[in-house]
Amino acid sequence: MTSMPVESPPKRATLRHRLFRTLSGEYFWLYLLLLPSLLILVAVILIPMLFAFQMSLGNTSIVVLGGRGTISNQWVGLQNYLSLLQNPIFWQALRETLYFWVVSIFIEVTVGIGMAVLMNQSFFGRRIFRVIVFIPWAIPTVVNAMLWGMIFDGDNFGALNDLLLQWHVIQSPIVWLNPSALFPQIPWLSNALSYLGSNLAMNSIIVGDEWKTLPIVAILVLAGLQTIPHEYYEAARVEGASAWRQFRQITLPLIAPVLTVVLILRTMQLMRAFTLIFTLEQFGLPVLSIQAYQQAFSFGSFGMGSAVSFLIGLIALVIAYFYIKRLYREEL
Amino acid sequence: MRNKWTKVLMSAMSASLLLTGASSAAMAKAKAAPQPVVLKVLYMSQQGYSTTVLNKMGAEFHKEHPNVTIEFTFLPYPQLHSAILTSAAAPVAQYDVVLSDLIWTGEFAAKGYTVPLNNYIRQYIKNPKGIPQSVWNGLSVGGKVMAMPFLANFQNFYYNKKMLAEAGFKSGPKTMAQWLHQMEVLKAKHIVQYPYEDSWLQAEGLVCDYVRTAGEFGNGNLFNAKGQPIMNQGAALKALEWMRMLYKDGLANPNSLAADEPTAANAFASGQAAFNTNWTFVTGIMNNKSESKIVGQGVVSGFPVAPGTNRATLSASISGFQGLAIAANTPASLKPWAWKWIQFATSPAVQAQHLHSEWPIWSSVATSPQEKHLNPWYKVYQQNLNAVYNRPAVSNYLTVSSIIQQYVHEAISGTIPVKTAANDMVQQIESLPK
Questions:
Q1: B178: part of which helix (H) or strand (E)?
Q2: What's the CATH architecture for B37-153+320-389?
Q3: ipTM score for this prediction
Q4: Is it true that domain A80-331 has CATH number 1.10.3720.10?
Q5: Are B279 and B267 in contact (CB under 8 A)?
Q6: CB of A216 within 8 Å of any CB in chain B?
Q7: What is the pLDDT of residue B9?
Q8: Residue B149 burial by CB count (10 A; 0-12/13-18/19+): exposed, middle or buried?
Q9: Which of A182, B117, B159, B205 has the smallest number of CB atoms closer than 10 Å to its CB?
Q10: Chain A residues close to B89, C-beta within 8 Å
């Protein structure tokens, strides 16, 4: 009589075994090579972000005790966020930030794609043109701010005023960097635009910012355009598709992934735009990033400053989500 | 044999004694030589006491104390406060000595970011009365001197005598009414489109101009003795109405609302304004051929004031004093050296070497033959220095200042009526947490 061998149930792998298998298996080198990058990301992004979030939930101030500086953080929960949401100055800053973003993105999508389409055509001197177009992007932001400060100077010797005065377009210099209301002769329109965050200084700054950032948008879109096979357009032409239909049904869907990346990147940059605005206006145009800086570094209220920063991040995240949902998934 | 070993032993002992002695001498010598010290100093990048001047001072100090090296960090003014704050948050100070503006005195004293210097001053400054009391007042709070005066900056009244002569005036205005009249005539005769340009950009400079203008109307104190804001009454309200009127009537250049101090100074130096109220650096600019189109035309003067006010000084200026302070989290071993540097840089001897750059804080240097020779306006400088008003010495000054900036800017540009702006300003400041 032989006894049937009884199959013992498979032993459940312990955590140690699983970890060992993972690290020693085919992924060993993968994890090893990723480790330095992961450590850097944790050290310079994750930990500071968690620390900033903790500060945003506290009444944070700098104190020097016994000759040693430190940051004291008294837990207040969501108080900083609630105070912000109840403050009309925050809402005005939010409207100004959103205006800055909407107008800038509109210019970038329309003019940026137009520039990219133009640079994608064959014409004499195309390479030189592409290099020239890219130059503004290479200029440091502070230098760009100083440059536009001189162009927009409100005295007679401001470059733009000088030009417009010489051409008799204007009778007296315009103070381009003064956040004055637009169309003051039409009160309802002036008030509505001011409420939405639009004023002379804001629009002047958008021009200065776009001059610098349009090239990178155009170059990225151009990279997307160059991946579209010519055969698609040839086939469309054979079918009798108009230029607009070719653009709408071939170009736009195929550059959608690049456009998504560009839009997300630019939204993040526009939401936290600081250097140009602060250099030219200091606290005169209090968009959210200026408010965050002022709260933290002028008023010493790091908790409130962190709360503003997290709200900026949250808004950018929501916008990015809609970009991905609308452009990336549907079109591919 | 025994003798031989004794000799060897004796020789070894002698040698070791010799070596020990030599090394002890070397140790003693090393102990006597001071340890190398690096002092990190935060200063402002500006004209006047410029990067070059400060580096020169640092090199002179190093000559006197070869073991001490001064390492400067120069930042623009708007970045100084945040740099001091972040340095204070570190366990050990990033900057041992910092340039402290008088408007931060209350905050730094309340939060303990810098140390009071009373003991050092009592021990090492032989003649503290040699520095005008107005300067000490600006850098002290509750009897604590939070910074040693270094920069006696204040505003002067500048006018273009050629333009005034063309308009038929032999001298600058003494009263506010005279000043208004001169501006109106200059404009009516088309001698200059906008007679006056000031720095009314929504920044700290605007508060300085507001306080000074209130001073010209008799009281530049924006808070009363009980610590309550009083911008909606008396001189402060008149000042706001005055600034709005100048803008509305086209007497002040509209660009003032977007101009900082250098921009306003450039407008004056390029002959686009007949008047400028600005810091002392304008004196150098207006007579510098490479920067000015009005060389020899600019005059430095006391400020016009409302009749019956400011009787002691017949002027009303604004202080922009800055001092050198020791960070509270500077290591104890470095603090004596930090003070030595402060004492050196603020000493009459060193300030006398740099009279081209700044007005000295020491009265003895300010009245020296050298200064009189270099600065023909020295009497006016003294007059305006004695006539300064200080911005409010409150611990939450920067928050208060941001409210003042916002409402004054809106009142001048006409976004909201002057009276409403003044009332809202007061109400918002009163609602701040104490």
A1: helix B176-188
A2: 3-Layer(aba) Sandwich (3.40)
A3: 0.76
A4: yes
A5: no
A6: no
A7: 45
A8: buried
A9: A182
A10: 62, 69-71
